[in-house]
Every structure is written in C-alpha cells, then in structure tokens.
Hints:
This protein is of the alpha+beta class. The protein has 24 helices and 13 strands. The model is unreliable at 1-10, 89-95 and 670-693 (pLDDT under 50).
Amino acid sequence: MGEGGSLPTMDLMRSEPMQLARIIIPMESAHRTISYLGDLGLFQFKDLNPGKSPFQRTFATQIKRCGEMARKLRFFRDQMMKAGLLASSWPSYSSDFGLDELEVKLGDLESELTEMNANTEKLQRAYNELLEYKLVLQKASEFFHHAQSSATSQQREYGDRLVEGSMDSPLLLEQEMTTDISKQIKLGFVSGLVPRDKSMAFERILFRATRGNVFLKQDVVQEPVCDPVQGEKVEKNVFIVFYSGERAKNKVLKICDAFGANRYPFTDDIGKRQQTITEVSGKLSELKTTIDVGILHWSSVVQSIANQYDQWNSLVRKEKSIYHTLNTLSFDVTKKCLVAEGWCPVFATSQIQKALQKATIDSNSQVGAILEILHTKESPPTYFRTNKFTSAFQEIVDAYGVAKYREANPGLYTIVTFPFLFAVMFGDWGHGICLFLATLFLIIREKKYSSQKLGDIMEMAFGGRYVIIMMSIFSIYTGFIYNEFFSMPFELFGQSAYDCRDPSCKDATTIGLIKVRETYPFGVDPVWHGTRSELPFLNSLKMKMSILLGVAQMNLGIILSYYNAKFFKNDLNIWYQFIPQMIFLNSLFGYLSLLIIVKWCTGSQADLYHILIYMFLSPMDDLGENQLFWGQKYLQILLLLSALVAVPWMLIPKPLLLKKQHEERHQGQAYALVHSLDENVESEMDDKSHGGHEEFEFSEVMVHQLIHTIEFVLGSVSNTASYLRLWALSLAHSELSSVFYEKVLLLAYGFNSVVILIIGIIVFVFATVGVLLVMETLSAFLHALRLHWVEFQNKFYEGDGYKFDPFSFAFVGEEDD
Length: 817
C-alpha cells in the first residue's frame, strides 16, 4: 500500500477520492510495469477486451504455460505431503530464477519424480508378491508336512494290524497297498492367498462349482499383508485347493481370479521347496535394500523441492496474475504500446508515476510509460483504507451493502455504537471479563494464527477479534452500570444509599428501606438486587433507556442524511426529506424521550403511556396529574400538528420540483454554443451509455416518494419499538445468569457435600460458557447487527456501490487458495 509516511491520514467518514486513469505502456516494459503496479496494489484495471474469449487474447499462451507449471507444483505439493514435509521458509540460493528457467527445472524434476515413483511402485509390487509367495511356501509346506506325517502314522498302524490279522483291518487295504503306483490317480493343486473377508464365499463357490470334488485347506495369516495390486494392507488367508481333472482345474482357476486371489506356484518336492524359499528370501533382501536406497534418494529430491517450493509457487502465481492483467490491456494504433485504463485513488498518483518510472529504467526502455487522468461520468468504486482494527467493523457494514462512492460511511460510527448496543444486552462485568480474556488470547497469538488454517467457527472468531474485544470492554462498562457480576451485586463504588428501618424489612419489600446516605455514585444501587421490586424497577429503567438510545441513534442516521445531501449538493433532500423527517420523528418519539428525562429528573408519578396515547386521541383534554411541566398541553398540540404537516411535506413537493428541474434541464440543452457542439455530442453519447437522458416518469417518481414516505412514517413507530429488544435481551441475560447462580451453584452449596459442590461448580461453568458466553453472545451480536442494518442505516445509507478491487500480489495467494 505504499510507505506509511507518504499516505494521508486515514478517513473513514467518506471513501477515498478516486480517478479514472489511462496508462500507455511500451511493449518492452509492459511486464515489469504491471509487476510494479501489483506490488503497489493501488490500481484497478478495467477489461478493455470484453468481447474476446480467454483463448483469443494476446497472452493466452503464457497463461497456459503458467497453468502447466502450477499443475507441476501441485504434483510437488502432493509428494511433499506424502513425505510429511512442509514448505520451508528459508531463503533460497536460486532467487533469480526466470520463468523460462523455472519451467525447464520444474519439467526435469517432474520427470525425475515420476520415473522414481514408477520404479519404486514396480519394486514394491515385486517385493509384495515375493512376500506373499514366501508366506504361501511356508504355510503350504506345513500342510504337506502335516499330511505326510499323518499318512505315515496311519500306514504304520494299518501295517501292524495287517500282520496281526486283526478282524478290524480294512478288507481293501492289502489291495490298495499292492496296487501299482502308476495306476493310482494323481491330484493337482493350486495355492495362493485370498482376502479373509471373502474366504467363506470362496470356499462355498468352490464346493458348488465342482460339486464337492475338491479339497480346500486354509490357514490364517496373522499380520495384514500388503496386496501387490491394491498396495494396501489386507487381512488374508493362505489356501491350497486339491482337484482331480482338467475341468476342475479350469473352474478353480476362474474362481480364484473372480475372488481376487493371488495364485503362486508350489511343488511337493521338499528339496525344491527349501531351495525356492532360500531364493525368495535372498531376492526379498535385495529388493528391500534397493527400495530403501530409492526412497532415500526420493526423499532428498522432495526435500530440495520443499526448500524452494514457496518461492517457485509465489513466482508462478505472480506471473499468471501479471499475464491475466496484461490480457485486459489493448494495443494502440501502432501495435507497439499497450493501453491500460482503470481506477486509482487520487493520493496514489505520485506513487504510480514513481512505479512507472522505475519500470522504464529497470527494463532499459527508451520510451517511458505515460499516465493520463480521464474525465468520466461513470460511478467510481468505493475504497476505504482500513487497518486490522477497523477492517472488521467495515466488513459488518459491507455485508449489508458497499457504500455508494463518497457517501457517509456508517462504519465509522459502528466502531462505537455496535459494541455499545451489544453491551446493553450483555451487561455483566464478570461475563465481559471472560470474553475479554478469551479474545485477548487470540490477539496476543494473532501472528501464529494468521498463518494457520483454522476451522470455520474459529476463523470467524479470529477475524472479528477486535470487534469482540470492544464488545467485551463495553460489556464490562455496562456490567458496572447494572452492578452485575455473574448476577451478583457488589458495592464497588461505595456503600448502598439505603438501609433497613428494622430487621424484618429486608426480605419483605423495599418500602421498609430508608435513604441514609448519598445516592450510589455509579450504576444501580446494589440494594435493589434480590428485592421484590427489583424486576419492576429494572424493567422500567431498561425499557426507557432502550427508547432513549433508539431515538438517539435514529436521529444520528437522519443527521447523516443531511451531511450526505449537503456533500452531494442536493438541496431537495435537505428541505423536503431531512427537515420533515426530523420534525416527524422528534415530534413523537423525541417528545417521548423528553418526557422520560423530565420524569427521571423530577421523580413524577405521571403515566407516560397515558400521555402519549391521549396526545392523539384527545389532544385538547387537560392532563391533570400526568402534567409534568407548565405548557405541556399546548406543546403537545404544536408537536402533533407539526407531525401531521411533516407527512405531506415529505410526500408532495419533491416530485413536483424534480419534474420542474427535468423540464428546465432539457429546455436549456436545446441551445448550445457552436464551438462546443462536438463536446455536447460526445457528452450526450457518454450519458446515453450510462443511462442518461431517460424519460422522466412523474408517476413513477410520485409512487416512489409515496412508498418512501409511508415507509418512514410507519418505520418510525416500528423502529422505535424494535429498540425494545435491548431491554428484552438484557432482562433475559440477567435472569438466566441469576437462575444458573441460584439454582445450580447455591443449591449445590446448600447440600454441605464436597462431591455435590464440585458437580455443581462444573455444571455452573459449562452452563455459563455454553449458554451465556456462546449462545447469548451470538444472540446479542445478531440483534445488534439488525439494529444497525435496519433501524440505523436505512435512514441515510444507500449501499449500492461497488468495492475498489485493485490488482495486488497480496491477494493473489488468497484467490488461488
């Protein structure tokens, strides 16, 4: 944003004066000029090629190159995440990389990493296959060894029985043993591994497909095995299937393929089996060494990329944004210069000129860039210079609508009024301190958190940390006024002004209290808390206070409409909008505010409801005991007549005067000096392009003014009533706090049990944090937001502008993310 000393004092009342500028840039210095303007961040470029698609623009090829490099960088980021590395912020030794050199280097690194990944994948697959093969050899060897030992023992047993001539010996045993080996049926077998979750279905399908003419043996592998195909850890079983015949073999092989079973060759020769196991173990050891060396080399390459990743990524993003901006520029007639148009603040003119001169010198251009200020009737963008404290308050206003160029900015007043109205609803200095400490923690660690990605809720709380800390400070202030600390009163500013007449009056009523000291100096007297008349007294106080605050803020809004009209030199809005609105609002609710203050000062028992109602129903009747001051009746009649006069004053004159001005303007335009003919034609074309010279529809203007008048008259009543939410929310917060204190903490304390007391404290803490510090904070925030958007801003704020969106490298990373 430039040097702090060269910038004028920040002014939030109105947006910065803007100007439309044209820059003529020689081709040889165009890239560097845009780069320096991006560093400055104070120029919003207009697209001078709106009819061209992205592929038809001049620098589409360069953008495509940058996009390809961004793809390679995303690939590198995935590899870094795979390696568990973070981009290093260390300064890199290769800081002078150009785009062409970087493109070549990124291409070489991508090819190298891709080849290394492919080789590692092949080696890892071979390693996993050999690992499975070794498991199959070991488990299947156990099958055969167990089967052979079992068969040998059976033969020995049957041989002994045959010698003894036992009657229990099988009749065919002798025939089986004397049969020629060549005539015996040989069984084939298939071995491998099958996923454990499919093993039962695998066995069932084998049995059904072969009609039970197979023998399946399975054994569980204790540890999960890395599958060669999927590359993931899978729980598997080793199986061996014995079959007879070629047809059965084909069926078994097809079923194995269908169930994703990995088949491995196996021999029943013990010597060959041992030799195969030895060979597989040797190959596994070699592959493991090769894979480890490859991974070590891969890690070193990825680490070198991580050390320079941030710099490369920043360079590619900057270059891409520069070429996107260059695509919005147009060529001049000679095709040797680029022409840029855009908006910039008036104070930034000298800084932009310095950037253009620096770009000309650094690019060794013989012709410098030319900055030209243009005159236009187009509405400029709105730009408020904010800091980290005021930006959150400005965002609250911008969420409703961006201010029209140079109109009064509610954000300036929101810095004070928003947290204050929140605090009126949240007044408790105990809760305020908790909120203050939590927000202070975020502010102290803002450097750390600003560079991290937080959750959605945490991100919102961190972004509005300065709003929340202002809300907490004002809550502590209003808590002192309400004299509430977690609903408990304290005599912080002295002793109570009242005392009991006798010991029995304390729990009965406040009628027994007598004033024995000076009035309590600040806030509500602590003696009111816990008495029968506490609720009626605080209700009356907070309700009247809400009306006073509401009328004051609505008057501020109308006064700001006067400053808007004066700034834009709109006398009609001053005479036929501001004045009648002030008269109408203050004739009714300004008068009500006056009655409240007079009643407080005099201690009168007058009924304000009765006074206001009968001011309309029976204005000529005597007030009787409700009279607060001399001449009140005649003042009420005068104010009532003023309010009645203010309505047609707002409604009728303004449309008639607008029609008269329109007719005079068009009548005067029929005559012009000869030498200004070309200028008139040009301005006429410009006006038409921006919606000028439209026909004046008196009926539409009249209807619009009628709607505006009705809205203000009815809104004055509804908006004043809307401010009573300050009273309602404050009462709800106070009563909830009192319930948690009395029904949880005091109740637990009354049991005289340490366990119950600890449980009560835990429940009280969670209820206070969850309900009062989270839900009530959000509720009061939303109600304060509504009061500003609807009741305050609709008196003067149009909010139909658009934000100043300069080309700045500071926002390039945020947009891409």
